[in-house]
């Protein structure tokens, strides 16, 4: 009896202690990251977590960074949401209590929706760099000054989705079949692209599948009966390898169009595909040869994590977070403060950062950056079309 | 163990005075709701011997109904709870009747309840017009309480803390009342040997159904609050993994006791936030704890405490 | 249209045979040890990763890689039986939860070693067969053939050999079997190891058809349990039949109805069959 009481008590005490252990010296700038690092939805979060960590270690290894006459180091706390909103809300509250002023993430739409009400209450105290698609509609709303969206928007005049659909239209496309995972992002994407295809006058048929599906034969066969010009599968490599293989092997489709995911599946099935058109924030295989910054990044990645550079696995997330940490540091330096988030926000909105990408934010806080449309053709020939909306 | 529950309650009542952290309050609130789920689940599982995997469905369906009635139809929260619980009651009576009429053996019962639960999840996931599909529904509203000085919105962490604590007490007391009555003895007989129960003249079907329905409705009650506290409902509420989490809480705490599941639920809710581990280690640790508890302390923490007391 | 249906019927059989091979492990373990080994999905995942590692990383030829994986998974299965499962014999709930705990442990180990990045094996048998207007990927046909051979082989081994008859008699009456001099403990260990090795084989062949990640097992073990229950616990051929019924109902269901409900089509079947025949389609004990 005493024991059960004691257990509960010690549990609470342990919780209390935890809040107290993170007090550090003043010259540390705390950065939080809130992403799914494990679980079936972890691909994006895990990659971006590596990117952020890499940037933090680079900056600290150089002795930190100078703002005014003080030198600061970064302290990164990474929370694993496992893609579960409940966990995320607790972790996010904890970050807020620890006065973390800069939080990276989340990439997952359901997680963003879950933490948004808490974030709103803390408006003015911190900045959130979220990649989630659902963050788009929260931008520019009252009490959302905290929010930046670290990804190009699909729709809109400079949105990559719009440009991609235009590119598709040039290929004389009449019919597209969309096959997406039935989760929060999948549904958002279906809503966005249904509108985009309608505007472009392209007929669209949509099927959704349960997360965890591996055999797409039945749904591919069903979509194939409509004889679409392109198959539009989504949205991560975990399913794209399977979809592209099964579609080509059984003759259901050989022309693909993607807005999320890598060109790895195309190269693996290079003799079976006809066309494979993908939005790739940066085509690293090519950029490595021409851009020294990219080369250095890849080498640093290999050295730090002691593993192969995941060319095919969303290096986009990894490095886009990487760039954002550097960009934030630059913004703090130009704002001359590490804790006045309003000033730092103004600095971020007015600057343009030249890292692996050229990045700037539009006036609502949505990111605009250059990207590549990669067109892989039968046999594996790769054509890269570069877009740079930051010049507009 | 007689005074364990009252003392724990006393501590819980005053704990917020010492805690000034929103995240710790959030863990406690989620802990209380998990504990309510675990206690109500234990009525079906630990005290009646039926391994139900329908608990997450009862919880989730109720959360959805309340949320939809409030957000889309402008109902008052408390009023919306009534039809939500009625639907859960009807669903549990249908599922229970099917399972118990056909006298499904224990594991078959688990699989069939899981099948119903999955079908409900898929319906909610794909009924886009009503449930907003995989995106779920965001809840901005907060329930109000009527006090002499007018309606007060329950929005602060402290208010939710006491509200969910009260919820836990209600669930706990309902289960305790049932178990200490004649019904409780019938359930125990059924758990030990339902054929024997039948020969003793117990209406096995009726009592199994009663236990299943009461447990499910209590889970529905938790669901109603859960959606409002967390601020959103999503199809994941009905997932199998939630059902398995509840089982783990009950086993860790102690399957044959009332207070056990409360302890198990609070520990398992707090654990990931107390121990700061890398993702892989945390998953591994979770599995190891589960294996360890079952093989080494089959009566859970409560059993361990009880036996130590006896030895001393 | 008929091509579409026949094609998907065949694909349903192929997918179903994979459910069947895991379901066979579920049904044997349940019949002989009284526990449902939910970790068979995790064993399947281990088999897939072991095959990938031997084949793509170490450069073994595919067939030896699968054999290597089966042996490795069998050894892990043996160790798990000695260390864990033997203490849960006859206790359904405990066995269930220990095996659920093991899923987390295995997943954690694979995550730590190989991360969440999905792996896609170098294609083993690319290309497809064209039969009367139908297109069937060669690898799927080959894998299905192996599964069918293994399941029927198991059936004959169980009905024609001494060990098999011992197992059958034990499942029917444990005490009588013990009196007849059957060493029940050993028999149970053999069955646990055999079922994990089957899962390892399932994983090894799975990896040649689909990409793999640490969470692939959980979906398949649920399907396998459904198949085993649907067929009736203890029926070897039934495990295959149950798997095929699930596979076909999912595939045909997805063609005519929204594919988002794919998992529900099998479940509806499961409930319906259990209500008509509570001991399963092929089960004889009521």
UniProtKB/TrEMBL annotation, chain A:
Transmembrane segments: none annotated. This is Leucine-binding protein domain-containing protein. One of its GO terms (biological process) is amino acid transport. The keyword Transmembrane helix does not apply. Residues 1-25 form the signal peptide. Keywords: Amino-acid transport, Signal, Transport. Gene3D superfamilies: 3.40.50.2300. Residues 29-358 form the Leucine-binding protein domain.
From TrEMBL, chain B:
Its main location: membrane. The keyword Membrane applies. GO terms for molecular function: branched-chain amino acid transmembrane transporter activity. It is found in: Cell membrane. It is a multi-pass membrane protein. Signal peptide: none annotated. Keywords: Cell membrane, Membrane, Transmembrane, Transmembrane helix. One of its GO terms (cellular component) is plasma membrane. The chain crosses the membrane at residues 28-47, 54-75, 81-100, 107-130, 150-175, 209-229, 249-271, 283-306. PANTHER family: HIGH-AFFINITY BRANCHED-CHAIN AMINO ACID TRANSPORT PROTEIN BRAE, HIGH-AFFINITY BRANCHED-CHAIN AMINO ACID TRANSPORT SYSTEM PERMEASE. This is ABC transporter permease. The lineage of its organism: Bacteria, Pseudomonadati, Pseudomonadota, Alphaproteobacteria, Hyphomicrobiales.
TrEMBL record, chain C:
GO terms for molecular function: transmembrane transporter activity. The chain crosses the membrane at residues 6-28, 35-55, 61-80, 92-114, 134-158, 189-207, 227-248, 255-276. GO terms for biological process: amino acid transport. It comes from the Bacteria. GO terms for cellular component: plasma membrane. Keywords: Amino-acid transport, Cell membrane, Membrane, Transmembrane, Transmembrane helix, Transport. It holds the Pfam family BPD_transp_2. It is found in: Cell membrane. InterPro entries: ABC_transp_permease, BCAA_transport_permease. This is Branched-chain amino acid ABC transporter permease. The lineage of its organism: Bacteria, Pseudomonadati, Pseudomonadota, Alphaproteobacteria, Hyphomicrobiales. Belongs to the binding-protein-dependent transport system permease family. LivHM subfamily. It is a multi-pass membrane protein. Its main location: membrane. It comes from Bradyrhizobium valentinum.
